[in-house]
């Protein structure tokens, strides 16, 4: 949660007029990181890549206009949460209604008043941040503090589609605690809950790059999304997870594998195709995880998607 609160806001200006971009960038310089695009098509690509908090969108652009761009932004799961503020020289009721129907949250009128522009964008950033905090609370697993399966399903699918469009490799890891039922039977459920929280901390230590995250997939099983990770790279993740879990030296008197808690890890990596889904990645990782369990647990296996 603190990472979310400490993140610098990102603003994307989509406008075909360089002078407008320069004026708005100067006015909003203290509000966060400023990005810009000079067409609707370019703006859509940048919004998907950078996930801005607020998008300032020119109402009238050649080619794909602001209304069409706004509709596409709101239809894309990767960009639909951004607050969209139309930049316009028009003030007709019909134009405003059309913009709101397309998904806009507010307007900024030309000529610009720096005080008004800053106030409106600050207001949108505040609303967006409050909404993000509430959404993240709803997406967290109550026991371990990592994301829950609902978040994994939603954001994992977004990552699959994004990596397909960009042509990059994505990796998914499934992590299962070895003989966890025996641990609970011997040490008790309170100790079991403490151990799951400890494991979640270990897994979080493996996710340091932008876009990476850990989710509790169910029971004693966790999932990790690893953007821009190839099959050749992912084996190091599996080795790191197994090694660091063993180094925590959590005693497990009921395990035939080791006297400390260990994990089995299945990893799937590759560049998704047009019809590749998150389910396909999970199935491949689950097959790898099954093989590790059949081979004695306390290890990892990687498969190519």
UniProtKB/TrEMBL annotation:
One of its GO terms (cellular component) is plasma membrane. It comes from the Bacteria. It is an enzyme of class 2 (transferase). It catalyses: 2 GTP = 3',3'-c-di-GMP + 2 diphosphate. Residues 168-305 form the GGDEF domain. InterPro entries: CheY-like_superfamily, Diguanylate_Cyclase, GGDEF_dom, Nucleotide_cyclase, Rev_trsase/Diguanyl_cyclase, Sig_transdc_resp-reg_receiver. GO terms for biological process: cell adhesion involved in single-species biofilm formation; negative regulation of bacterial-type flagellum-dependent cell motility; phosphorelay signal transduction system. It comes from Marinobacter nanhaiticus D15-8W. Its cofactor is Mg(2+). Its EC number is 2.7.7.65. CDD domains: GGDEF (cd01949). The modification 4-aspartylphosphate is found at residue 58. GO terms for molecular function: diguanylate cyclase activity. Keywords: Phosphoprotein. This is diguanylate cyclase. It holds the Pfam family Response_reg. SUPFAM superfamilies: CheY-like, Nucleotide cyclase. PROSITE patterns: GGDEF, RESPONSE_REGULATORY.
């Amino acid at each position: 949660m603190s990472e979310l609160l400490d993140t610098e806001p990102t603003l994307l200006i989509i406008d075909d007029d360089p002078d407008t971009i320069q004026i708005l960038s100067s006015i909003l310089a203290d509000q966060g990181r400023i990005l810009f695009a000079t067409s609707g098509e370019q703006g859509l690509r940048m919004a998907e890549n950078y996930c801005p908090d607020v998008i300032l969108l020119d109402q009238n652009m050649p080619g794909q206009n602001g209304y069409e761009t706004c509709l596409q932004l709101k239809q894309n799961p990767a960009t639909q949460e951004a607050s969209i503020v139309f930049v316009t020289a028009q003030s007709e009721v019909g134009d405003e209604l059309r913009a709101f129907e397309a998904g806009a949250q507010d307007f900024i009128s030309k000529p610009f008043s720096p005080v008004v522009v800053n106030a409106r964008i600050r207001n949108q950033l505040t609303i967006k941040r409050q909404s993000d905090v509430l959404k993240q609370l709803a997406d967290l697993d109550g026991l371990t503090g990592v994301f829950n399966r609902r978040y994994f399903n939603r954001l994992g699918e977004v990552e699959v589609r994004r990596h397909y469009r960009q042509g990059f490799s994505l990796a998914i890891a499934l992590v299962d605690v070895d003989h966890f039922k025996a641990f609970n039977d011997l040490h008790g459920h309170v100790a079991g809950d403490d151990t799951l929280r400890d494991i979640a901390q270990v897994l979080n230590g493996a996710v340091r790059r932008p876009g990476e995250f850990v989710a509790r997939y169910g029971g004693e099983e966790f999932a990790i999304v690893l953007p821009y990770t190839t099959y050749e790279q992912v084996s190091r993740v599996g080795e790191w997870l197994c090694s660091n879990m063993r180094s925590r030296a959590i005693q497990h008197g009921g395990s035939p594998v080791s006297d400390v808690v260990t994990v089995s890890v299945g990893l799937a990596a590759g560049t998704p195709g047009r019809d590749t889904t998150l389910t396909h990645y999970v199935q491949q990782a689950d097959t790898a995880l099954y093989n590790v369990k059949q081979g004695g647990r306390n290890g990892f296996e990687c498969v190519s998607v």
